[in-house]
Design brief:
230 residues, 9 helices, 2 domains, six-stranded parallel sheet, DNA polymerase, domain 1, disordered C terminus, alpha/beta, Rossmann fold
Length: 230
């Protein structure tokens, strides 16, 4: 049996167009604490875990013991926002289903909490297609550390060099590279120039297909059409 290929999806900005919802949840948290929070501040933190943002970049100084409660409140605000108006990413569910049908192993590697991932999987109806889900609660170090993708690959049982990672943030692209995986970047959160470290950069998910991802993983050689992709 052929060794499978795998695709690890970042969630925010890839499966869900969550940029504005995340910004708004941080803005509301800061407002509750009596501080402003700008889009520029948010942009500098995007891709890091909430715990890291609160500990290192938050405008309101807080003791380490206060961070877990602030983290939970921020994520409660975020889930309230996306449940009220779910911002699905165009082409995401179609790509997931196509990859699963082609025999790819699939995982989610997101810095967000598991409860956020569960909301997204409920909304998309594609939860059963993922063989592994890794959240920010499963790691000690956020991106660009490769830990989150290493855990995802281990849970899938697929070697890193057989894994593609679909990311929207430069920190995620760097994390995939450090993990020994093939980063594929989606513009929107960042520009093509900022995502230049990826092996492939696309503007829309419908530019991707199982064949194109397999080709990218194989270093550019076109996959044979008379045999299974994986």
């Amino acid at each position: 049996m052929a060794v499978p290929l795998a695709v690890i999806f970042d969630m925010d900005g890839v499966l869900i167009d969550s940029y504005d919802a995340h910004y708004e949840s941080w803005r509301r948290l800061a407002a509750e604490q009596g501080a402003p929070y700008t889009r520029e501040q948010f942009a500098r933190s995007f891709g890091r875990t909430s715990r890291e943002i609160l500990a290192e970049q938050w405008p309101v100084p807080m003791a380490a013991a206060e961070i877990p409660a602030a983290d939970r409140r921020k994520e409660e605000l975020y889930r309230r926002i996306i449940r009220a108006d779910y911002p699905g990413m165009a082409g995401a569910v179609e790509l997931v289903r196509a990859l699963h049908g082609a025999g790819f192993a699939l995982a989610i590697g997101s810095s967000g909490p598991r409860a956020n991932i569960e909301v997204v999987l409920e909304q998309t109806g594609a939860g059963g297609l993922f063989g592994a889900v890794v959240s920010g609660e499963d790691v000690h170090r956020g991106k660009p550390d490769p830990e989150i993708f290493q855990i995802a690959a281990a849970r899938l049982g697929v070697a890193p060099d057989r894994c593609a990672v679909i990311e929207d943030a430069p920190l995620g692209v760097e994390a995939a590279r450090r993990a020994g995986m093939t980063p594929i970047a989606l513009t929107g959160t960042a520009t093509r120039e900022q995502l230049a470290g990826a092996a492939l950069v696309v503007d829309r998910l419908d530019e991707l297909s199982p064949e194109r991802i397999a080709e990218c993983l194989r270093g550019g050689g076109a996959p044979a059409t008379d045999r299974p992709i994986v």
